[in-house]
Design brief:
The complex is a heterodimer of chains A (538) and B (357).
Chain A: H1 2-7, H2 12-21, H3 25-54, H4 64-98, H5 107-125, H6 153-182, H7 195-226, H8 240-257, H9 260-274, H10 281-294, H11 311-336, H12 345-368, H13 370-376, H14 380-410, E1 412-413, H15 416-442, H16 459-489, E2 491-492, H17 527-533
Antiparallel strand pairs in A: 1-2
Chain B: H1 10-30, H2 39-72, H3 90-118, E1 127-134, E2 137-143, E3 150-154, E4 158-162, E5 166-173, E6 178-182, E7 187-191, E8 198-202, E9 211-216, E10 228-234, H4 236-251, E11 267-273, E12 282-285, E13 291-297, E14 303-304, E15 307-309, E16 315-318, E17 322-323, E18 326-332, E19 338-343, E20 351-356
Parallel strand pairs in B: 1-5, 4-10, 11-13, 12-20
Antiparallel strand pairs in B: 1-2, 2-3, 5-8, 6-7, 6-9, 9-10, 13-18, 14-17, 15-16, 15-19, 19-20
Helix pairs in contact in B: 2-3
Classes of the chains: A mainly alpha (538), B alpha+beta (357).
């Protein structure tokens, strides 16, 4: 009895222990994804609270102070604890598999990077338990408003949470860079790496160069607030614009941190479901590098109305970003041309990404034209823009990636019908929510207001946006149900359900510890395709 | 490859195309900014329209390509052979790099030119106003020709301006960052503490006697949404008359303090303000005799007052504007029975009903 109980104690308890202590990049990747999706749901609840309050003029549900906390925490969770980590999660899971490596270069640091994130979430949200409530100065925390005389301890907790997340990001970036440069399988040259790996590499370089700047700024703000510093408060001789410069020097590249790996996912999904190679692989990599490089010269386009930046330079650099982004678009579309498209859920989300992220690109060009930005800055137009980029872009790519790699992660396919129902509701809800915001912004509705004049002509559009918001929430239900039934009785996927191109499809689903028993020959960016069909010249 | 595919009927396709075009036109019509009322705003509008046309062109082209690919290149049951494995085309890459580059340069040059017009500041403006922002109110200082001396300080958030002449605005913040934003100017500029931003504009003569809404556009704290103001466009003659009246009224001796001894039997109405709201939205007072409103402002640093208007919209009393925490006793003249509205001059959204009977 005693010996058998020892042997069979690999039950629930030790399974949990295994997840809590794992250094396997696949399990850590899944932890990243699970934690990020949880944060997406929590952040979504805050979004619904905001939309509920704005559905009609007047304050029905919240006080002004509570409203400000709701939108601040919504944005902070979605950006720092959902979009960035969810893409890091995909990277963690898929990068070692794609380059034929057994694990990340530093498995323990990898686990540490992850576990900082739930801790950060707890610290940030614990602001609600303090007297003054959670951080409420917006996710941008502009000084002097973020100073101690205006905002309570919730802001300190927010700063600490962001320091933890920043540390996690920096460690993760170093881990990715070392893994990609040192652990590729024989034959996996840089120009045979999947585009997803390239986007993670460029993203990691951005993180490594930008995040320390934010970290320094956060520490300076903390010193201002708690130790009598004078960095950012003009009342004590500081400079309010300095905060914006340091903040956006990180936070604009962060937008590319939040979109480049999403573009990577799309660049994996489109070729597989078109049965064609990615059109213009090298052009795509150059475009990715160009976006990364240009990303460091456009931060002040968030500051056009401050009167404190040299406008023509930042305007020009911002316009330039359109060129590599355009190259990517045309390459994606050319990938589909003359292909054989199979509309499984991943492709549905990828096409959703193309149609919607396009709008996020075009409505961003308006803000690059400085005088037009004078009209649109800090209005709901900008809220529409960021959501067309980060929801129409990143979130759609996240679901494309989840449906695409789920069979690899868990050995079972998510239900296609539920996936399509989810897509339809999400696509409609997304446009109902965010398209009217263009009109609200043009007619002068500033962002971050708890209430608005009933005679301003904004009532109907706000109600529409709220209905759209709840439609998005509705679309999450089939997803949760899908996850539940797939774990219980999902269709077994097999090793390579989609006829994939890249190395993760050359191992079992889910892959064993250390990933591969043997690797196929790597002679192009599509080794598994080559093994199946023979090489086509690249 | 060239197997004939079943096509939807021609009428269904043209209907779908018609719906798409109708949606697009509706979208375009909905994305029209308000008509600009300043000459700078009209320049911005021209630029907006230009960017919009290019944006719609790109949108239609790219979405059409996506929809075409999605409809045309679906995998059919007979597709067992791989489609042609095309890895790229350098000529195409050059084309779709060069054309967007040219487009971007045109957009940049046009927006730079417009920027120079919108940002131009006259060496000799006809009027200089300093807009002062603080949590959570606007006030406006009308400066003399020297650009220094304050001729008149308007504490209510109403910016009266002459049309047809160049107006220079200087921005000053007393605390955090705010933004001066008038949607119909198609313009905003941040009010940054420690920094004096300024800009010029000329309101069209045709827009005299109109009022435009303005609002703080940079999140400035708890009651950010209450930081409203309005811009009232006057003919230059009307404006000068108005300004002289205000200067004279401000210079006149303030109304005598309420006699503490005289009317011992006077009714006192208590009213207070907290969190940019009155504590009561309905108060009562006796008809036909003077009474006192004891007004307590509980908002630290925020200015309030009580002003009373009758049912025809005529102002019958305007109390002194002062910052909290503090209180004032306003002597109200005898009022005829009826229903009046009381409001804060600084925060027009703070209102209530005064019933006199």
């Amino acid at each position: 009895m005693a010996t058998t109980s020892l042997r069979t104690s690999t039950g629930y308890r030790s399974g949990l222990y295994d997840w809590l202590t794992t250094t396997d990049h696949k399990k850590i990747g899944i932890l990243y994804l699970a934690n990020s999706i949880l944060m997406f749901l929590v952040g979504g609840v805050f979004a619904l609270i905001v939309r509920l309050e704005l559905a009609q003029p007047g304050l029905q549900f919240l006080t002004d102070a509570q409203y400000n906390q709701a939108f601040t925490i919504h944005a902070s969770l979605m950006l720092f604890l959902f979009v960035i980590p969810v893409l890091a999660g995909f990277g963690n899971y898929i990068v070692p598999l794609m380059i034929g490596a057994p694990d990340m270069a530093f498995p323990r640091i990898n686990a540490f990077s992850f576990w900082l994130l739930p801790l950060a979430a707890i610290v940030m949200l614990s602001g609600f338990a303090t007297g003054g409530g959670a951080a409420a100065a917006g996710w941008t925390e502009y000084s002097p408003l973020a100073q101690a005389k205006y905002e309570g301890i919730g802001t300190d907790l927010w700063i600490v949470a962001l320091l933890l997340i920043g540390t996690s990001s920096i460690l993760g970036a170093i881990n990715f860079i070392v893994t990609i440069f040192k652990m590729r399988a024989p034959g996996m040259t840089l120009l045979r790496m999947p585009v997803m790996v390239w986007t993670v590499l460029v993203t990691s370089i951005l993180v490594l160069m930008a995040t320390p700047v934010l970290t320094s700024a956060l520490i300076m703000l903390f010193i201002d607030r708690n130790l009598g510093g004078h960095f950012f408060d003009p009342a004590t001789g500081g400079n309010a614009i300095l905060w914006q410069n340091t903040f956006w020097f990180y936070s604009h590249p962060a937008v590319y941190i939040m979109i480049l790996p999403a573009m990577g996912i799309i660049s994996e999904v489109l070729p597989v479901f078109s049965r064609k190679p990615l059109f213009g692989y090298k052009a795509f990599i150059f475009a990715t590098a160009a976006i990364g490089a240009l990303g460091f010269s456009v931060w002040a386009h968030h500051m056009f109305t401050t009167g404190a930046v040299y406008l023509p330079f930042f305007s020009f650099m911002t316009f330039l970003i359109a060129i590599p982004t355009g190259v990517k678009f045309f390459n994606w579309i050319a990938t589909m041309f003359r292909g054989q498209l199979t509309f499984s859920t991943p492709l549905l989300y990828a096409v959703g990404f193309l149609t919607m992220f396009l709008i996020g690109g075009i409505n961003g060009a308006f803000s690059a034209a400085v005088p037009v930005d004078f009209a649109l800055h800090d209005t709901y137009w900008v809220v529409a823009h960021i959501h067309y980029v980060l929801f129409g872009g990143s979130v759609f790519a996240v679901f494309a990636g989840l449906f695409y790699w789920w069979p690899k992660m868990f050995g079972r396919r998510l239900n296609e019908t539920l996936g399509k129902i989810q897509f339809v509701f999400m696509f409609i809800g997304f446009n109902l929510t965010f398209f009217p915001m263009h009109m609200l912004g043009l007619s002068g509705m500033p962002r971050r207001i708890a209430d608005y004049d009933p005679n301003a002509g904004w009532n109907d559009l706000n109600l529409l946006a709220t209905i759209g918001g709840f439609t998005i929430a509705l679309s999450i239900l089939p997803f949760l149900w899908n996850v539940f039934i797939t774990f219980r009785s999902g269709e077994p996927a097999g090793d390579d359900p989609w006829e994939g191109n890249t190395l993760e499809w050359a191992t079992s689903s889910p892959p064993p510890p250390y990933n591969f028993d043997h690797l196929p020959e790597i002679r192009s960016e599509r080794p598994v395709f080559d093994a199946r069909h023979g090489a086509t010249h690249g | 490859m060239s197997i004939p595919r079943p096509q939807p009927p021609r009428s269904a396709r043209s209907l779908a195309a018609l719906v798409a075009v109708a949606l697009l036109l509706a979208g375009c019509a909905a994305l029209e900014p308000p008509a600009a009322v300043t000459s700078q705003g009209q320049d911005t509008r021209t630029l907006y329209d230009f960017v919009f046309i290019i944006g719609v062109g790109i949108f239609v082209l790219v979405e059409a390509l996506i929809i075409f690919a999605v409809l045309r290149y679906r995998r059919k049951p007979g597709d067992t052979e791989l489609p042609p494995q095309i890895h790229g085309n350098s000529v195409l890459e050059v084309i779709w790099t060069v054309i967007p580059t040219l487009l971007v340069i045109v957009l940049f040059v046009f927006s730079w030119q417009t920027l120079n017009k919108v940002n131009a500041v006259s060496p000799a403006p006809a009027l200089t106003v300093r807009a002062v922002a603080a949590q959570f109110q606007w006030s406006f200082e009308y400066l003399a020709a020297d650009g220094q001396t304050v001729q008149y300080e308007q504490l209510a958030p109403e910016l009266d301006l002459p049309v047809g002449v160049d107006v220079h605005v200087i921005l000053r913040s007393k605390d955090v960052i705010h933004a001066f934003y008038v949607p119909k100017f198609l313009f905003k500029r941040d009010v940054v503490p420690g920094r004096e931003n300024n800009f010029d504009f000329t309101i069209d003569a045709a827009d005299a006697n109109q009022t435009f809404r303005g609002q703080c556009a940079e999140f400035c704290g708890t009651f950010h949404s209450t930081m409203l103001f309005s811009v009232k466009a006057l003919t230059p003659t009307d404006f000068n008359t108005w300004l002289q009246q205000q200067i004279k009224a401000a210079a006149a001796t303030p109304a005598p303090a309420p006699s503490a001894s005289g009317g011992a039997a006077e009714t006192t109405v208590e009213l207070s303000a907290h969190n940019i709201a009155f504590d009561q939205t309905a108060v009562q007072a006796p008809a036909g005799q003077p009474f006192v409103i004891k007004f307590t402002n509980n908002d630290p640093g925020v200015t309030h007052n009580v002003a009373i208007t009758d049912s025809s919209g005529q102002q019958v009393f305007k109390g002194e504007i002062f910052a909290g925490p503090d209180s004032r006793e306003y002597p109200i003249p005898a009022l005829a029975a009826g229903t009046y509205t009381f409001a804060c001059s600084v925060h027009p959204q703070m209102t209530g009903t005064l019933t006199v009977k």
